[in-house]
Input
Amino acid sequence: MKPYTLSGKAWKKAIVTKRLDDRSYEICSGDGSVYRRNRAHLKEINVFNPSEDNTRQLDSAKTMCQEIMKDKTDNV
Output
């Protein structure tokens, strides 16, 4: 049996926008894509000293995700 390898894919930062059930979450990536992911495939990051720039970027990313989600629900 061959050992499992991770194929060299990099983790991408995203924001959890909604908890869908016990193990499933809806996330919004930095490019505006929305995905459904199992909690096993999410990795929490800790920001010890968030700078003003990081806070501003996070707020703008959350706003962008909220607008995308609103557009998707309006079109349904």
